[in-house]
Design a protein that fits this description.
It is a single chain. This protein is of the alpha/beta class and about 280 residues long. It has two domains: about 15-115, Ribosomal protein L30/S12 (60s Ribosomal Protein L30, Chain: A, 2-Layer Sandwich); about 115-280, Alpha/beta knot (3-Layer(aba) Sandwich). The chain has 13 helices and twelve strands. Strands 8-7-6-11-9-12-10 form a seven-stranded parallel sheet. A five-stranded mixed sheet has the order 1-4-3-5-2. Helix 1 packs across helix 6 (about 90-100). The radius of gyration is 20 Å and the shape is elongated.
Amino acid sequence: MPRPEGPCAPRPDVIDNPGSQRVTRVAALARRGMRPRHGRFLVEGPQGVREAVTHVPGHVRDLYVTEAAAQRHADVLAEARDASLYTHRVTDQVMAAMSTDAQGLLAVVSTEVLTPAARLDEVLAGARLVAVLTEAQDPGNAGTIIRAADAAGADAVVLARGSVEATNPKVVRATAGSLFHLPVISGLDLTEVVEALHEAGLTVLAADARGDNDLFGADALLARPGAWLLGNEARGLGPEALSQADAVVAIPVFGAAESLNVSAAAAVCLYASARAQHAG
């Protein structure tokens, strides 16, 4: 995707043609195949855009804003202007053609913001808490887990091969900007990831209802540097993932619910590790 002609924050003219080539190219980034092709992805909505502008301005390629959103989020535009980012005013119709979830504010960000798989060993050096999504297919859950990992102070999130793309628009929205706060690595086979975790000295924990270890009685285990393997939304962790874990940990259920949603389980497990590690 070509770069604009020059910095404009905000531009005096307004993009008002929903069928223009620029608008079509931006809208196309919602499709899976177009993001790797152009090396770009969409960040929709004020929260995600604000975090991208604040934390990774060098990767923000273009910013699009409606007149109403420009007034509501003047602070974001001021920060973008200070960073000399390309900012374009658009009509409501153009914004709707590019995204139905942007709430008037949309950024195009380079996929280079994601940490390359080749840097996994570097990222894990000295890490104490990592989340590994083994077969996460639901983008909302994947994004929520990235956000929970960020909030719990995790050092990285790994989306093993077979998981949803980190640049999927629904994943990006669900992270609420946490995608830009910590390394997120994709594309590696689970076996490669587990080997790297062990090399870095991390205990590999599997979150599974069949576990022999009760989460609330495992402080000694959780206090060590560790990585949580988190399973598929419907099937949980498969035999291969369970066999590669050093310990399988179950979250106790006190009510009538059969189990927790994977993103809720991830938050509970990550915070349990964070609490045990900070207490040490």
